[in-house]
Amino acid sequence: MRAMRLPARPVKLGFGPGAATWVLLQQVVVRGLVAVKFLAIGRILGPSAIGLASVALLAVAIAEALSDTGLSQAMIQGHAPPTRDQFGAVWTTLATRGLLVALLLVAIAPLMDAQFHLGGALGLVQIAALLPLLRGVSSPAYFLAQRDRRFQHIACIEIACACVDCTVGVTLALTGVGPYSLLIGMMTGEAFKGVLTWTTLTPRPPVRLRWSGIGHYLGFSRWIWASSVVNLMINQFDKVMVGKLLGPTQLGAYQMSSRLAQMLLADAALAMSQYLFPTFAAHHRGGPHAAARLFRMYLGAVALGLVVVVVVLRAAAEPLFSLVLGSAWLSAVPLFRIFVINMAIGALIAVLVSYLRAIGDARAATHASLLQVVVLIATVPVATQRWGVTGIAWAMTLGLASGAGWMLYRALRRR
């Protein structure tokens, strides 16, 4: 069979269904709405309420990472799309996983209440349990749309759901619902997304219990699962430490400074990875050299832009917090200055992970995550003792830099 040849031009411009313009538009609109939602709710409710909601979302992140199947990435990366029966098995697996995670979160809600000083607000964790269930029952046709690079359709779905999430969340916060407003807004957006995936995307999976036929995905997806478990330790370890030792108010300040840096830096790269992963994979199927050239081009452009943005954000940190969030959040400024460096490295990692997974080297990301864990184990105790919460933030940054260095080595070695 003759290899597929893709055009040399790395980015398809214009407004065609597969144009990168739709990914960029989705990034601007969705991340803008997420920023409006979090900043508005943060200003209305303050650090303590944001900390309470963060504990519930932390529980969801932990449970989802421990149960990540990697099936969505395996479907995108695979050389052939799934058959109808395989498609049904994927949906069965994802829906079952969502249900089990939801039941687990409801069961551990009292433990989360006791360990993270929720003050009896265990209902936050119980409500958050609906998030993985809603995600699980959505149609996996969404992942086929990503595989086929139907970015226009994906952008429309994501923008519509972000509008619903933002509108509901901010409205409830203004009417006095408190930290529940953040979670209810997210659930409403996820439910709407599920409806859109079933009504607007094809093919639709058969809704019946089926487990066989997807064993060939396991070789790739197991590395995605392993990476998710290790990344859980990396991405949530600091939040667990702050929430357990210092309580919801300090967690709220820590989470907001991290979230603001993420919105301004890492989210752009994460959203762009929705375009890069299937695009790198498609070029790699046509020939590894084309994918390597495209990777070097994107990595250089992203790195140069990040240097400029980091310098600007560190200089403008204090007036930015005062203007956007108010004086109650100024204690988070030193953390924010660390997190902009942290998230810039995370943005580079998003490009590296997209490329490595696209060429079938998913284990490299897992190895990088393990390296980060080793660095954290070696540095966090000393850093925490000497510098407290800022020490944890710097240790996280050092771990990310170590992982990024390893992935860059693996990516360049595969050229």
TrEMBL record:
Compartments where located: Cell membrane
Topological category with respect to the lipid bilayer: Multi-pass membrane protein
Keyword DNA repair: no
Pfam families: Polysacc_synt_3
Superkingdom field: Bacteria
Transmembrane parts of this sequence: 48-66, 87-108, 260-282, 294-316, 336-356, 368-385, 391-409
Assigned keywords, A-Z: Cell membrane, Membrane, Transmembrane, Transmembrane helix
GO annotation, cellular component aspect: plasma membrane
Family: Belongs to the polysaccharide synthase family.
Protein name: Polysaccharide transporter, PST family
Origin species: Paraburkholderia caballeronis
